[in-house]
Amino acid sequence: MSATYELRGNVAVITMNNPPVNGLGHETRLGLTNGVERAQADAAVKAIVITGAGKAFSGGADIREFGTPKALAEPNLLSVILALEASSKPVVAAIHSVCMGGGLELALGCHYRVASPGTQVALPEVKIGLIPGAGGTQRLPRVLGVETALNMIVSGEAVKSEVLAQLPGQRLFHKIIEGDLMVGALAYAAEVADVRPLPLVRDLKVSHPSADAYFQFARNMVGGMSKNFPAPLKCVDAVAASTRLKFDDGMKLERELFTALMFTPESRALRHAFMAERATTKIPDVPADTPVRAVNKLAVIGAGTMGGGIAMNFLNAGVPVVILEMKQEALDKGLAIIRKNYEAQVKKGKLKQDKLDARMALLSTTLDYADLKDADMVIEAVFEDMAVKEKVFQALDAVMKPGAILASNTSTLDVNKIAAFTKRPQDVIGTHFFSPANVMKLLEVVRGEKTAKDVLATVMQLGKKIKKTCVVSGVCDGFIGNRMIEQYSRQAGFLLEEGCTPAQVDKAMEKFGMAMGPFRMGDLAGNDVGWYIRKRRYLEKPNLRYSKTADLLCELGRFGQKTGAGWYDYAPGKRDAIPSKVVTDMIEAHRKTLGITPRKISDDEIVHRLVYALVNEGAKIVDEGIALRASDIDMVYLTGYGFPLHRGGPMCYADTVGLFNVVATMKRFAANPLDDREFWQPAPLLARLAAEGRTFS
Ligand SMILES: NC(=O)c1ccc[n+]([C@@H]2O[C@H](COP(=O)([O-])OP(=O)(O)OC[C@H]3O[C@@H](n4cnc5c(N)ncnc54)[C@H](O)[C@@H]3O)[C@@H](O)[C@H]2O)c1
After folding, report:
1. Confidence at residue 541, expressed as pLDDT on a 0 to 100 scale
2. 321 in a domain, yes or no?
């Protein structure tokens, strides 16, 4: 039973005990109802205290039960709360540390609530596309007032207990207990043991002096801020109902809204992303208790675009960093950019000056490899050239202390080859940051053939420390993200040849939800990067079909924003993409040389050709073991490539459409003589799952 029962004098204490956060799994729910029943039956018991063991009162639903029959098994949370309300003896919730979601709803079903200061109180269901489903939307307004409750429910953000306790007229907390919570809770239980009738939150009155106007205002605000997500507006509906309907009718409406949201693709996508994020840290052959190496000092090689950003991550986390460059000027330039970035944050009020000073004080520079000898880890971010990497890794091998981790930020080169430049390939790993490295959430952690398990475990833990979403990738050209984007770009090229303009493709993808369409993205990242990669690729694979349009663009010197022109024109100093006559003429001329008569292409076709290109390559990446699981691919795309969260990532989107339908559409694309037949052969994993009626997840 995940809850214990003990007698403290004439008070029964029920302690939820389901680590790590006392999730309200089936066993815990049973423990609660059994405990309440036992206390009713014992004439010596005058009152009941409910609390949580360890690090939380309760974090809410047990996510391990999501999607299993146990989640729905009786007693469900609603039944538990009814049992608490029905208790003939007062029930006091003794709340500490974390009280969220179902945990807060449980507490609201108790007659009294006492709490330690510093407790994080929240109803975060909106973050997984839902509304609270066990009375939160009806009870919280009754104890905190409509406006505070709605703010909490719509944002899902946590508020500290002592802040809530200070709100005028609040009835959430009967007492804030400084010092020992259990001592205070037992004393409070003794105080209220004989009070009758027992107070119930459901009996409290709730109203708003100008309800209609207020809820109209809330709907406008919330609707504008949550375009792709239905749940926030439903939060408003549910809270509005608490002022309009009788309690039980409000509960009924809450349940209906909750159940309807549960089946929306948006909630499915958010729940998927929530679970996917947690799954990324699980590496089957590297258990969670794998010992890690201490990283108390970091070295970075190269103070360019990436080196500077990478260094900032560690400075922000309080880790001292030394940067090495070839020339003093490069160091000065790199340092100035780091300082400028921090100063911009100070100007915006996001960083205090003393923090800036503290961070800069952690940073040192050198031109001499000997100065790296006391670093526990080094991240190389020099030019993307194997010969340069070879020199750097040989130098590092010579000076770094035994056991130091040697990481490369390469985006395209073979990490196994880089490891072989050293006599310690087990200590070598890839850390592929995304630009700007101090901002982007994604970190692809590239596991080489010989990378030691503790090195991988250390880097995953370090990634978490610098607040990245770390996804493990095997070694292959482009790793997970860029290997897939290459196929996406190939399709984008074919679309131009067949009749689209760059703006039409970008608009369709942005309407689908991508942060940026492929051509705007190319202009931002620099079209020359892909040009360079294609030159190499098509030397290796001369028969691979691709559109030469992007090469022609680069031959015109139109590399993107950095040259003031790319797929679009740019006014000096501006980033607005203006459709370009030069580019349209170039595309039309190119079509003529190919003998193509342009056709009208629908937004649907654009979206599906680009997204299914990602999906098919993603399936190959999972099949080859480059990615550990399909959901890792979704995390790469959600956190590194601006894929819309409400779609859950490319693989989740394919699941939502149905893999059978995805494959059928791919077959249609394969029949297009202007497309690449080979390209649309379903990856073996995709074909298999589609045939068996299964999904990636
Ligand atoms: N720019 C991106 O978007 C991006 C994204 C992910 C990964 N990467 C990878 O990161 C690495 C660095 O890219 P970048 O964009 O920062 O390049 P960059 O040209 O901006 O910076 C490279 C820096 O390395 C220095 N350098 C070169 N050789 C050196 C040596 N032998 N010793 C010490 N310093 C040396 C240069 O002086 C320069 O300051 C590359 O491997 C690149 O593929 C880049």
Report:
1. 82
2. yes
Q: CA angle 114-119-122, nearest 5°?
A: 100
CATH code assigned at 534: 1.10.1040.50
Residues 6+ apart with CB under 8 A from 24: 16, 18, 58, 60, 61, 62, 77, 80, 102, 103, 106
- The Cα 673–Cα 187 span in angstroms is 81
**pLDDT at residue 1, as a whole number:** 66
Q: Is residue 275 over pLDDT 80? A: yes
105 carries an active-site annotation: yes
pLDDT score recorded for residue 552 = 96
Ligand 1 closest atom vs CA 525:
3
SS3 647: helix
Q: How far apart are CA 402 and CA 56, in angstroms?
A: 41
**Catalytic one of 6, 27, 74, 105:** 105
Catalytic annotation on 65? no
Q: Is the CB of 410 under 6 A from ligand 1?
A: yes
Can you give the residue range of the structural domain that contains 80? 3-262
What confidence category does residue 660 fall into, taking pLDDT thresholds of 50, 70 and 90?
A: very high
pLDDT for res 582: 97
Check pLDDT > 80 for residue 252: yes
Strands in 593-680 per DSSP E: none
Q: What is the mean pLDDT of residues 399-406?
A: 98
Asked whether residue 419 is domain-assigned, the answer is yes
Catalytic option among 65, 74, 85, 125: 125
> Where is the domain boundary, 429, 451, 475?
475
What is the average pLDDT across 488-517? Answer: 97
- Ligand 1 centre distance from Cα of residue 616 (Å): 31
Share of the chain above pLDDT 90, in %: 94
* Whether residue 410 sits in one domain with residue 355: yes
Position 399 pLDDT exceeds 80: yes
**Residue 451 near residue 429 (C-beta atoms within 8 A):** yes
Domain boundary among 475, 491, 515: 475
Closest approach atom of ligand 1 to CA 304:
21
Q: pTM for this structure?
A: 0.93
In this structure, the strands spanning 47-52 and 298-301 are unpaired
Same-domain status, 467 and 515: no
Dihedrals phi, psi of 293, to nearest 5 degrees: -90, 145
Which of 279-293, 436-450, 513-527, 535-549 has the lowest average pLDDT?
Answer: 535-549
Alpha helices (runs of H) in 499-559, residue ranges in sequence order: 502-512, 518-525, 527-540, 549-555
Domain count within the chain: 3
Please, what is the angle between helix 502-512 and helix 479-498, to 10°? 130
Is 482 close to ligand 1, i.e. is its CB under 6 Å away? no
